[in-house]
Design goal:
With 410 residues, the chain is α+β, with helices and mostly antiparallel strands. It has 2 domains: 23-298, no CATH class; 348-410, Homeodomain-like (Arc Repressor Mutant, subunit A, Orthogonal Bundle). The protein contains 16 helices and 10 strands. A 6-stranded mixed β-sheet has the order 2-6-7-10-8-9, with helices on one face.
Amino acid sequence: MKVSRRTVARRYMLLHTEPKCMSRIVTHASSTYPPDSSVCTGSHLSLLVDLPLLRSFVVEWYSVNANRMKKSQMAGAGIALTRVAGLRPVVAFLGRRGARVERLLERVKMSPDALHDAEALIPTSRAFRFMEESACVEGIENLGLLVGQETRLEQFGVYGSLIRRKRTLGEAIAAVFRLLPFFSSGTQMWIEDRGDRAVFCQRFADGLGDHRQADQYSLMVMINLLRLAAGPTWHPDEVHLRMPRGARFDRFPPLASCVVRFEQPANAVVFPRSLLDRPLAATGLPVLKPETLEAWTSSAPAPDFTGSLLQVADALPPSGYPQIGAAAGAVGMSVRSLQRRLAESGVTFKGIMADERFAAAAKLLRGGYAKILDIALDLGYSDHAHFTRAFHRWAGTAPREFRRLARQSA
């Protein structure tokens, strides 16, 4: 798995033992900052969670990103990003149906290469567009439900594996909330308490375009998680969807016998609260390696606009450093809108790209034996001379001298 050079390294101890229940958490999680408390219409449940290791991930992530979060409140939240692992089941389903997946990806300006790394980040709005376009072109009204019905948590990469290893449903849902910022931004999840019933809720942030298929997909994934404790044939009595009434679910077996409420504040599944204490079905997943966990937490979606834009730029096709037009297109914005958002953060696209070039160049010069010409070409410079002049402006010394001094101090 590729680790972006733009992320901050996190250092922590990784334990592979299953720790005992340690503390209570409030079960409202949001990958936006700050969480929108207005979405919670009921009192929150408190769940026992056995995640001191994962708690350390979250505490460190928020401590590292605290200043960026405060800035994002003033200059606007970051670009909503999600891991490729969340879209892969959709692509696989369409492939099995005989759809021309590459053509569908082209319609939303996505490259098949962007889907090779399950832990890579893509703009959430583009994933939504792909699902909506695919449902329209292929004539599959309930694409999200059909994909979600076949999707297992393990297919969501590191995120799914960490959730799936929990002992009880309550602990698994707690892990869903605690680890959400590492998997996807622009998403909120929480639980509401209704006495002997609980409501498992999810919603996407506004401004991400049409996401009816993603709403259906999320609903079925939540039902599948509940079924790990309730049994594979369990059906909810009531579900909620944000989408308007129109789709017919009466012929879809998992929802045929339940009440479906449309145009609700959130996608939600109502279930017996007693399920929270039930154990999950056994799994034989291997223990994740420390380097895998470190790479995953280090590449979490950035909470601020500038950081998330850099993550999008990092995922663009490797043809030198991206131009502002390519970056704007990737996040679904006009060039002028992108420039305005960056100005609100006190930076320019040219400036942040220059800083990134210097950071990448310094890393390559310190850590390897690549020829300076090759480094220059990799970073989008036409020749050695242009790169040398630019690097001298950044560092006050030539690349060759910088490498020599770095090796001496190592």
